[in-house]
Write a structure and sequence with these properties.
The structure holds two protein chains of two kinds. Chain A is mostly beta strands. Chain A is built from two helices and 19 strands. Chain A has a single domain, classed as 3 Solenoid (UDP N-Acetylglucosamine Acyltransferase, domain 1), CATH 2.160.10.10. The radius of gyration of chain A is 16 Å and the shape is globular. Classes of the chains: A mainly beta, B alpha/beta.
Chain lengths: ~160, ~200
């Protein structure tokens, strides 16, 4: 319903109103976190209660949360445009229908992480604190703390401040 | 390559211009998108698929559309999308219907999947994207296309194949295999291929 209202709203407008509406709907969002556009919350049942966001986070427009399981986002996390958090996978053991039975796993994003534009975070992934994910990367494995992932390469940022 | 500019005059020129300006306009598609726009995303998936088949697309029983896919294409747009039974198509999909897109039964298509059917011929260096070429795409029964994968023109994805999320498929995918990466390469052979072969 909120999506129907705010979906008509141009991006980068009424960001605080959008964020407060999400708070009213039951999403646990810390202080000073802001959504620059209405995110898409998918899933069955009470999706809002499965999303938890820390303080001082920034979400760019068109974020997609698939809330079949819990998504926990730490403090000071920056999320770029068109980022997708997927918590639902399929058990592809049935040859007649590879996308048959669903399996879901939670996602955790550590404090201070930065996700670039068009990043796709796969079910069950934990991104460590202080990690940076470059644009259009598909994160299918856990990322340790203070790593920079660009394309298929991973570089440590531990020595960088 | 020898290119002679077609000199159309008068009425002929107006006809060409009119075609160019309107070939992508389908009043029925606009009406469909207007009606479907009232349905909430992720909800009424059966009803949405029913509305699509009412508008003229061939969509099997039990297929669900989580949101209206973005559709564009030329004259035979409505006959160019064939979807089988019991498919599940997620939000934000893009179907380019310049050529036939055939989707089998029990296919799962993740969010943000793009299926393309038109491309260009590689042309001179001053203008690489040459003449538009069109190739059909087919997705086999029981396949699963992961989130945000891109299926390029002319590709056929085999029965029971899995395409990993975010991959770009530019070659045919063998049945019962998992492919991934840009461009997509075979990651593993999935078990269960023998059962269906028998």
């Amino acid at each position: 319903m909120a999506r129907q209202v705010f979906g008509r709203c141009p991006p980068f407008t009424a960001a605080r109103l959008t964020t407060n509406t999400l708070r009213l709907l039951g999403v646990r969002i810390g202080t000073a976190s802001v959504f620059w556009g209405m995110p898409d919350l998918a899933g069955e049942g009470d999706v809002c209660s499965r999303l938890r966001i820390g303080t001082y986070c920034g979400f760019n427009v068109r974020t997609y949360f698939e809330l079949a399981n819990e998504i926990t986002i730490g403090d000071h996390v920056a999320v770029g445009q068109d980022v997708m958090f997927l918590t639902r996978g399929y058990d592809s053991s049935n040859p007649a229908q590879r996308g048959g039975a669903t399996i879901s796993a939670p996602i955790e994003i550590g404090n201070g992480a930065w996700l670039g534009a068009r990043v796709t975070v796969m079910p069950g992934v934990k991104i460590g604190p202080g990690s940076v994910i470059g644009a259009s990367v598909v994160v299918s494995k856990d990322v340790p703390a203070n790593m920079l992932v660009m394309g298929t390469r991973t570089i440590s940022l531990a020595k960088w401040r | 390559m020898d290119r002679t500019e077609v000199k159309a005059t008068g009425w002929q020129r107006i006809k060409v211009l009119f075609h160019e300006e309107t070939f992508g306009f389908h009043p029925r598609l606009v009406a469909l998108n207007t009606v479907v726009g009232f349905l909430p995303r992720h909800r009424a998936a059966h009803a949405r698929a029913r509305l699509f088949s009412l508008a003229g697309f061939r969509i099997g029983e039990g297929t669900r559309l989580a949101a209206a896919p973005k559709i564009n294409g030329g004259d035979s747009l409505f006959s160019n999308l064939v979807i089988g039974e019991d498919c599940w198509i997620e939000v934000d999909c893009v179907f380019d219907l310049e050529e036939r897109v055939t989707i089998g039964d029990r296919v799962t298509i993740g969010p943000g999947v793009m299926i393309l059917t038109s491309t260009h011929e590689l042309d001179i260096r001053e203008h690489r994207a040459g003449v538009v070429q069109r190739f059909p795409v087919s997705i086999g029964d029981g396949a699963w296309l992961g989130a945000r994968c891109t299926i390029l023109p002319g590709v056929s994805v085999g029965t029971g194949a899995v395409v990993n999320p975010g991959s770009v498929v530019n070659k045919d995918v063998a049945p019962h295999t998992r492919v991934g990466g840009i461009p997509a390469t075979q990651v593993e052979v999935l078990p269960g291929a023998e059962q269906t072969a028998r």
